[in-house]
Design brief:
The chain has 384 residues and is an alpha+beta fold. Helix content is 52%, strand content 14%. It contains 10 helices and 10 strands. The strands form 3 sheets. A 4-stranded mixed sheet has the order 1-4-5-8. Strands 2-3-7-6 form a 4-stranded antiparallel sheet, with no helix packed on it.
């Protein structure tokens, strides 16, 4: 069922119509089969790139579409509702482009952004490590100054698109301990010394490769650094604010898909001579699911509008990520219940959507970390 969206411009309506057309014709028919076989749908990202959908929030002069986040996130929601590996992949790619777009020098933006956001290449974001997840400032991958550039050694973990991306946005330590010693680098996939672990065997999202990224004597030129030395942690956190909104939009897309499937099934399935949708127990369940989805969508759009207005939005983004992903887990679990025994088998979409929803409570900062972010904002001195 198409969501009735309040979009800011006629152009945005046309854009969402284009996205829905691509979803119906090319993305949705692939989701179940690709997930079952663990196939990465690289060709679908090429299709999105040719349609101008991999650089939506970035400037037109570098090949982007200059769309507000309010619009970009609703595109992500539509994609994720059809195939989470694609929707989340677009979010991760957008996150990976952010450091160059927001902190890169003019020469870097001119050289890198057209390819990155024009759909020619796909990105990955390397922050977490095997022993450094929620405590991102404790990362140990090190970039040592050498021969006018840098030599990088270390291991990154839980990297979406690891082994299939064309470039990696890397956070590495250039000095000392803690947040102030971290810098940000752009690393092309064909850089010597870069290798990848076996893709993780996951509960869901099997079409989206998640793998370790290994750096063994990787040599980088001085212009590979994005922003100044020691600015990497600040860049990473700014990128994650936007990335959390992408995950919130993905969660709403998954939840909406689960509600649509459950509602259609409840209208058709008959027990005791009547549709199960007409039983109050099921009808109220569907009503609660729809309400949670509407609230989650309103919260991520509110955060997006703050971002578009140039106002602080990090706390609201944490709220949106927290609420939307918890709602998606609840909604997809309830969808399985509506289907009954059929919800537990792979012939119907509910079980896949439930498995996919779980990871959204973990990525881009666990929901426990989102609560830390929100509580600190509430209790700090000065305005919240």
């Amino acid at each position: 069922m198409a969501v009735d969206r309040a979009l800011p411009t006629p152009e945005a309506h046309d854009l969402l119509d284009l996205v829905r057309d691509i979803v119906v014709k090319e993305i949705a028919p692939r989701a179940a089969g690709d997930e079952a076989e663990g196939r990465f749908p690289r060709d679908l990202f090429a299709t999105l790139g040719r349609s101008g959908l991999l650089g939506l929030p970035y400037p037109e002069e570098h090949g982007g579409a200059a769309q507000p986040y309010e619009v970009y996130l609703q595109v992500v929601e539509e994609l994720a509702g059809a195939f989470l590996a694609v929707g989340l992949g677009v979010s991760v790619h957008t996150l990976s482009c952010f450091p160059v777009a927001a902190y890169g020098g003019e020469d870097q933006r001119a050289a890198l952004l057209p390819g990155m956001i024009g759909g020619e290449v796909l990105g990955a974001y390397c922050l977490s490590e095997p022993q450094s997840g929620s405590d991102a400032a404790a990362l140990t991958t090190r970039a040592e100054a050498a021969d006018g550039g840098y030599t990088v050694d270390g291991v990154k973990a839980w990297t979406t698109h690891g082994g299939v991306a064309d470039f990696y946005t890397l956070m590495a330590r250039t000095s000392g301990d803690g947040a102030r010693g971290i810098s940000c680098f752009h690393v092309p996939a064909d850089t010597p010394g870069l290798s990848f672990g076996r893709p993780e065997r996951k509960m869901g999202m099997r079409s989206s490769p998640t793998a370790q990224v290994r750096l063994d004597g990787v040599r980088l030129a001085p212009d590979a650094m994005i922003g100044g030395e020691g600015e990497g942690f600040r860049i990473a956190m700014a990128a994650l604010d936007g990335g959390r909104l992408g995950i919130a939009a993905c969660a709403v897309g998954v939840a909406q898909a689960a509600l649509d499937a459950a509602t259609a099934y409840a209208r058709e399935r008959r027990q005791f001579g009547t549709r199960i949708a007409d039983f109050q127990g099921v009808g109220f369940l569907l009503a609660d699911m729809a309400t949670q989805i509407a609230a989650a969508r309103a919260l991520y759009l509110d955060a997006a509008r703050l971002r578009d207005a140039g106002r602080p939005y990090g706390t609201r983004a944490a709220m949106a990520k927290l609420f939307a992903t918890d709602a998606a887990m609840k909604v997809t679990t309830d969808a399985v219940q509506v289907f009954g025994g059929y919800g537990y088998v792979e012939d119907f979409p509910a079980e896949r959507l439930m498995r996919e929803a779980k990871v959204l409570q973990i990525v881009e900062g666990t929901n426990q970390i989102q609560r830390v972010v929100i509580s600190r904002a509430l209790t700090k001195d000065g305005p919240a």
